[in-house]
Amino acid sequence: MPTIAAILVSSLAAADNYEQPPELSAATEFTGIPLEGNRYRINPVVSTDGFLTRTEITSDFGVFEAAGPGMLEVRLSEIAALDKLETLEDSEEFQRGAKESVDEKVAGVKKLIDQPRETAAGISEGVGRFFKRASRATKTGWQNARDILNEPDNGEAAAQSSLPGAALTPESAETENRYAMALRASGSTAADILGFEDSRRRLANRLGINPYSTNLVLNERLDEVTRSIFAGDLSVDVLTSLIPGAMLVTASSTATDWVFETPPGDLRVMVDEGLQSMGIDQESIDLLLRHKHYPLSYQAAIYSTLQSLDGVTGKEIVLPIALSAHTFDQARFVINTLGMLSRYHQSRTPIKVLRGLGTIVAEDESGAVVVAAPVDHVAWTADLERFVSRPEFAGRDVQLSIAGAYTPAAKDALAQRGWQIHEDSPLFEPLHKIR
User: Fold this and answer.
1) What are phi and psi of 371, to 5 degrees?
2) What burial letters (b/e) apply to 11-38, b meaning 16+ CB within 10 Å?
3) Residue of 379, 381, 421 lying closest to 398 (CA atoms)
4) What letters, b where the CB count within 10 A reaches 16 and e where it falls short, cover 136-146?
5) Domain boundaries, the chain
6) pTM value?
7) Which of 46, 231, 247, 387 is deepest in the core (most CB within 10 A)?
8) pLDDT for 328-375, tens place per residue?
9) Inter-axis angle of helices 178-194 and 127-150, nearest 10
10) Separation in Å, CA 139 to CA 134, 191, 254, 290, 408
11) CA 354, CA 376: separation in Å to the nearest integer?
C-alpha cells in the first residue's frame, strides 16, 4: 500500500506534467470556412479550455461565441439568417401587411387568457389533441412563472456541474422586473396554443435555422418578425418569397427532420409522454421541459436518443446529469454524448447499461466501458486526470472516442493508463447538423 508521502510525490509529479490549454489558429482549425464573409469576421485566434474550442465571431448583429465542435457553422448560418430577416423587414410589402388585423389577433390572445374554456370550444382542431397541447403548454408556462417568482433574491448559485462547457464568467444578472418576467413566461403559453410558435417554427425552417436556437439576438429578431406575421394574419410562405430564392432552404431539404417539422405543442406532449413511458419521474420531466438551457429541440433530442437506446438499462441516470447543466454548452455536451453512445450502440457493440460518472458513460456487451466525449481539443489538465483516475475505470477496457483531437501529452497520458483512444470519431454528429 503506497504511503501518504508516495501519493503526494506522485500528485506533484502529475501536476508538473499538466499543460496549459493551447491557443489555435482559426485558419488551421476551420479549414474551408472563410475567416471573413458576408457581415461577419472570425477571430484568427481560437482559445481552448482543455476540452472545447471557443471561437469569437464579430458580426453586424453583435459578437457571438461558438464553443465546441460544429458550433461555428451553426453561428454562421444564424448570422446569414439575421441578414435575411433584415431584408424581409425592410420590404414595403412586409411593413404594409404587418399593420393589418393587429387589433383582432391581440383580442383573440386576450380572450384565450380571460376565457380559455370558451375559446377552446370554438377551435376546430381535434379536441383531445388541442387539450393535450394546451394542458402541457399551460403547465410549463405557469411552472416557469412560479420558478421566476420564487427564485431567491440572494442570488446564491446552485452547485456547478462538472460537465465541460462551464461559463468562463458568471452569467449576468437579469435586470428585468421579476413580475414582468413571470407574466411573459405564463403569457407566452396563450400565444403558443393559438399558433404563434407554429408560425415562428415555419419561418425558421424556411430560413434553414433552428427555431429553438440558443442565439438570443436571433431569437429576438425571429420573435419580432413572427409577431408581425401572426398579428397581421400574414403568410410565412408569401412573405419569405420576398427574400431572394437562393437564400432560402426548400422544404424538401429539411422534411426528414421531425423535430423541426413537428408543431411545438405536439412536440412537448411527445417528449413528456415518451419520457414517462421510459420510467422517468414526472418531476424530472417537468424540470427538463422548463430548463432555461434546454430549448425544445434539445429536449426532443434527449427523448429521441434515449428512445434509440433500445434494451439499455440505466436511463434514469440521464436527467439528473442533464439538469445539472448551467450553460447551453453543457446542455449540448450532454445531448451530443447521448448521440455518440446511440451510434456506438447501433453500429458497433450493443450497450447494456448507462452509468453516471460526472458525465454519461456506458458499458457494452463485451464488458468495455464506453466514454463518448463531444469535445474538439483535449489537453492534459488536472480536470482530465481527475476524471480518468476514477476507481470505476481501474483495470477496465476503456474505449474513449472524441469528436476532435488530443494534444501529444494527453494522448500519452491516456495511453499509459491503457485507454483505447479514438480521434475524429465518426460517432460524433453535431446536434444541429443542417442548422
Assistant:
1) -115, 115
2) eeeeeeebeebeebebeebbeeeeeeee
3) 421
4) bbbbbbebbbe
5) 4-70, 92-153+161-261, 281-422
6) 0.79
7) 46
8) 999 999 999 999 999 999 999 999 999 999 899 999 999 999 999 999
9) 170
10) 8, 14, 30, 10, 51
11) 23
Cα 245 to Cα 327: distance, rounded to the nearest angstrom:
36
Q: List all residues 6 or more positions away from 314 whose beta carbon is below 8 Å from its beta carbon.
A: 353, 354, 355
Rounded Cα distance between 47 and 410, Å, is: 17
Give helix 127-150 / helix 264-277 axis angle, nearest 10°: 80
Q: Is-contact 196 226, C-beta < 8 A?
A: yes
User: Over the stretch 182-230, which tens digit does the pLDDT of each residue have?
Assistant: 444 444 555 555 567 778 888 888 888 888 888 999 988 988 888 777 6
From CA 89, how far away is CA 225, in angstroms rounded? 7
Q: What is the DSSP letter of 423?
A: S
User: Nearest 5°: CA angle at 287, between 284 and 293?
Assistant: 125
Percent of the residues in the chain that have a pLDDT greater than 70, as a whole number: 67
Residue 107, pLDDT > 60, answer no
